[in-house]
Write a structure and sequence with these properties.
CATH class: Mainly Beta
Order of helices and strands: HEEEEEEEEHEHEEEEEEE
Distance between the termini: 40 Å
Number of strands: 16
Strand content: over 45%
Shape: globular
CATH architecture: Sandwich
């Protein structure tokens, strides 16, 4: 009889875990491991973006992975799906090469055109991927890169801190800057960004590196990936709602 009761309790426990798993899955708004290519994305800038071995590559380094004649220095890739409200963004990224050790890993969060035009319709206006053309849009920018200021350049690359900046656009207003952890080539980083109302947090490998409060933060828009003077890849992009069911 005790054995039967134990089995019943164990069964109930598994059912409860299953319900939790379903609820967690229900909050996932978007996931891409790039097994289907770039169908969910479009690229801006003069450089190549491509999928190889289940990873999304972004090339913004002259003479990079796809030829020696390339002259562009920047690249932006947008997810086609819009996201509203409080969200959590998780992904993996890995710098393959950066000749100036920029190791530039950037994110556009809840971006849109203040005039209401869909960004996909105006993509040709940003065909060169020039950074200032995004500063007049609405959204938040997070930059994560190797610090190449004078003091850090005196250090070997494996000892330089990362520089993290969180900004508000339009206006390119700096909200927060931190110098901590590291951002190196040939290292795979797991990124987590939480955008909850006016509050933004940025974590790498489970470490909270920067937080900012933006009273004018937009409540929805597009998510974008950006880099400068860097070849890198992205994988396992997961965007979840923090608003519950």
């Amino acid at each position: 009889m005790l054995s039967t009761l134990a089995l019943c309790l164990l069964s109930c426990a598994f059912c409860a875990q299953g319900d939790d798993a379903v609820a967690e899955d229900a909050r996932v708004l978007f996931f891409d491991d790039f097994s289907a290519g770039m169908d969910n994305w479009w690229a801006e800038g003069g450089l190549n973006a491509w999928v190889e071995d289940g990873k999304l590559y972004q090339d913004a380094e002259p003479g990079g992975e796809r030829g020696e004649s390339r002259t562009g220095l920047c690249s932006t890739i947008w997810c086609k799906q819009e996201f509203e409200g409080d969200i959590r963004i998780e992904l993996d990224t890995h710098v393959v090469r950066s000749d100036i050790d920029a190791n530039n890993i950037n994110f556009f969060i809840h971006f849109s055109d203040p005039g209401g035009k869909p960004l996909y319709e105006t993509r040709d206006e940003r065909a060169d991927g020039a950074y200032q053309k995004y500063h007049v849009l609405s959204g938040n920018i997070i930059t994560f890169l190797s610090d190449v200021e004078k003091e850090s350049l005196a250090l070997p690359p494996d000892q330089r801190p990362a520089r993290i900046r969180i900004r508000h656009c339009p206006g390119f207003e700096l909200l927060k800057e931190e110098f901590t952890y590291h951002c190196r080539q040939r290292v795979t980083y797991h990124i987590e960004i939480i955008k909850q109302g006016p509050d933004i947090s940025f974590s790498v490998d489970g470490r909270l590196l920067a937080q900012a409060h933006d009273p004018q933060a937009p409540s929805g828009g597009l998510f974008g990936l950006r880099t400068f003077r860097t070849v890198l890849w992205w994988d396992n992009v997961r965007i979840s709602s923090l608003g519950g069911e």
